[in-house]
Amino acid sequence: MKLIVHLPSLEISCVTLLLVSLFSTPTRSEITSLDSGNIDDTLNNADVAMVNFYADWCRFSQMLHPIFEEASNVVREQFPTMKEVVFAKVDCDQHSDIAQRYRISKYPTLKLFRNGLMMKREYRGQRSVSAIADFIKQQKVDPVQEMHSLDELKTLDRSKRNIIGFFEEKESDTYKTFERAGNILRDDCVFLAAFGTISKPERFSGDNVIYKPPGENTPDMVFLGSLTNFDLMYAWTQDKCVPLVREITFENGEELTEEGLPFLILFHMKEDTESLEKFQHEVARQLISEKGTINFLHADCDKFRHPLLHIQKTPADCPVIAIDSFRHMYVFPEFSDLTVPGKLKQFVLDLHSGKLHREFHHGPDPTDITPGQEKAEVASSPPESSFQKLAPSETRYTILNRGRDEL
To answer: Would the pTM of this model clear 0.90, i.e. be above it?
Structure first.
């Protein structure tokens, strides 16, 4: 005997809608809330992580929340595990220690992490679901190009920095270490690898990694450390991939200012490679110990005419060396003094000690005046910083100036 139940049409309609809703509504992706207790484990165990640093009082942060969550949903369809991709958020008011650790001064700020390390190039693209999702998917593209013949070495782009690994097996621990370093430094170097019989001619005594610097005739450099020690591999590849003296452009200017370090800049004509090589050599010789306290940069005189005007120079005066402290700009007296032992280093040390600032306002320090020499009158208004104007971003709210209305 069959039991037949007659439901009113309205009830059937409601049940149908409920079932459709249950099976058709996409699952909302949970954005991981980070705090001091879970941030390191969460980021270290993810190949790629996108972190939204926000403040609840910021309306632009509020506007980004649903966009960020939906982008996470889109990415999660392709990369479902947190080992592959993590979308996370930090409430900077509640966790000011984390905000300070990552130098967050604008809301919302989207930072990219690879294997737990924060990338200098934060996300600056369009704040839309598709743009953010596409950006993250691009980060999951294999950072290492596989070579299928050693003949490919003959056609390398020698204007770029190339790190090349020769491995017996792709599943080896040595390759995994190499791949991890490549994932972090993919924006700075080209990573290539060959395996098995193809790589055998280059594996004289086991797996091998080399660096091919820019330039057709520059010699290769071989990694001599343990290929399974990630810290050694990363330190070596970072040293090779990130030049000591970087070029500043209008495209990367804001990123460099946000590193928070003053600039030591060589302004030179683009075709004047000789002056650049001299500057690079002296920075490496005199100032390697100052790495981490100041950014060593070079800039195209034609493109950066405005900063030159701030120090009463023109492209005709190039090459010119100057420091921008983000408060004032200070000019190195003579480019020809660049090779005088210790001269460039003293210029930087005088910045750190405050001597450059004092002398601009009050003239030479008494100890620098020879007996009988009168104290010279010095202008009390040093040139203002020029590169500081590259920050803050026009697309975010800055806590440095809450009077501006930014997204």
So the answer is: no
